[in-house]
Design goal:
124 residues; globular
Length: 124
């Protein structure tokens, strides 16, 4: 499985960005896909996940502002980020956990495949 993120950039607070993750080589019928982020000096944290049934979960810290979605025909995962804040500044990673679904999607250790990341910088 290969994952390639795009869509990051530098924006001012209050603006929006949409991240994309193009997946290839996926042979799993059941899976979790997720967006994670890591700011300098901080641990990697989950932002949003979605499974092969389309069940999505979004972290409380971004729940009102971020939306995760997937286009199965394009094998692409998205993260729509609205009303961005400086604290959203981080490297954002796309990841896949094959053979997991539902509540298992929240387990960081389940994700075996990772993209290279895309930087999001939000200025005040």
């Amino acid at each position: 499985v290969q994952l390639v993120e795009s869509g990051g950039g530098s924006v001012q607070a209050g603006r929006s960005l949409r991240l994309s993750c193009a997946a290839s080589g996926n042979t799993y019928r059941t899976y979790c896909m997720g967006w994670f982020r890591q700011a300098p000096g901080k641990e990697r944290e989950g932002v949003a996940t979605i499974d092969s049934d389309g069940i999505a979960s979004v972290a409380d810290s971004v729940k009102v502002r971020f939306t995760i979605s997937q286009d199965n025909a394009k094998n692409t995962l998205y993260l729509q980020m609205n009303s961005l804040k400086p604290e959203d500044t981080a490297m954002y990673y796309c990841a896949e956990a094959g053979n997991y679904y539902g509540s298992w999607c929240s387990r960081l250790w389940a994700y075996k495949y990772w993209g290279q990341g895309t930087q999001v910088t939000v200025s005040s």
